[in-house]
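S1.2 Input.
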Amino acid sequence: MVKKKLKVNPYLLLILAFLGVVLVGSFLLSMPFAFNNNPNNEWCHVGSYLDAFFTSLAAMTLTGVTTYPEGLANTLSISGQIIVLVLVQIGGLGIVTFLTFFLVLLRRRLQFKDRLLISQAIAFNNYAEITKYVNRLIIITAVCELVGIGLGVPVFNAMFPGQPLKIIYYSVFYSISAFNNAGFDLFQGTASMIYNLSIAGGNAIETTNWLYYYCNFYLAFLSLLGGISFLVIIDIVFGRKPPRRWSSYTKICLTMTATVILVMTSLLFLTDGIKYENPMNLFEAFMTILNCRTAGFSVYPIEEISVPGKMILGVTMIIGGSPLSTAGGIKVTTVFIIVLSIISYFRGKVLAPFKRVYSYNMIAKSMSLVYIVVGFLLLAFFALVGFGVRDTTTLSENVKSNLVGSYLFEVLSCFSNVGFQTGLESHLSVGSCIILCLLMLVGHVGPMTFFQLFQNNLDKKPTMHYSFVEEDILIG
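S1.3 Output.
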């Protein structure tokens, strides 16, 4: 009798490994050494274990939110902050990437089944080149983050003159946080990182001096690199080809990224640039859109953005960045396929941008993803409204005046792994925290990955030895 080997679902393996690292991180963040001002060495000195789990998951999913009322830096010690930073790095590269890298480092030869399993887990189709891809990914990450550390030194040198250790630590923290699109903040407050840097920097970082613009562009540049797709960087840097010979995937990612940023910047400037109180200038609109794709940075306080402006930010967050990057959202390639199919339908002909045509299966998959995400977000929104906050009397007046809108913004921000905070986080009930945890997990791993757990026939071509009569029905 031949025993059948247990077939491991790579997507289940990926999720279980992901949650395993989150649990280890939450356990470490519960330890006495992870907290500031903990003279009695209390376990979970601030909040409960759920707060530690929430922070650990937010780091692994690159969302960058926390439920600690006093913020990350005022709650966690240097040890706790380093734990968060390690989780961000693992989440940015991916657990499977780390595993593959260490296996190669130990000179273990990957078998065919290992390559197939890894390629399925990280959605990389060319399993024969998986080792080369992982090595290049590690190199790209290391180089970009080292460059980010160097770029951050002038900013933190101006903020902390004569404190070299602090300058290096902050440069490392913000480089990793920015490149991995995490957006964790070491300064007090619920506003965004760059906004807090401007406040904390005092006279060093004012809106009128060069350091203010340098700080914005340096963080935005790193977050853009992290969200542009590792495949795009590999194609441009390692391919050594002129732009006309770049792959269609690279051209689509670059074109759609530029289009989304320019269109959404124009719309946001139109809605919030004409406000009577504290109007947003063009630079602030551009930087806000550039960073809200997944990084969670902004030069403008989020609570002062108008309702139409927040709707624009919501759409931008849902779109997100490119596949195989540190970005979240449904990805720019999905939007490209949907827009292309709509234009093709109304023009009555098949379009071939970059001399490529795309299958019906790609269109169906893109449409399905959008419908699934919209349905999932609606359910999460209703659940969040149902669970609500522990006590509405502790909320700020800005949040109270638009509580439902804050719930919706939290749902979009957590699913897209952006991390914009509305001030609700430290007031949420246990049920609401669990809902946001689920949103962050599904947003980072991807809705289609979860469907692969229960349905093995996705992306498979149907095999039928017969066909039915085709019929058109009334639409619209």
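S1.4 Remarks. The radius of gyration is 23 Å.
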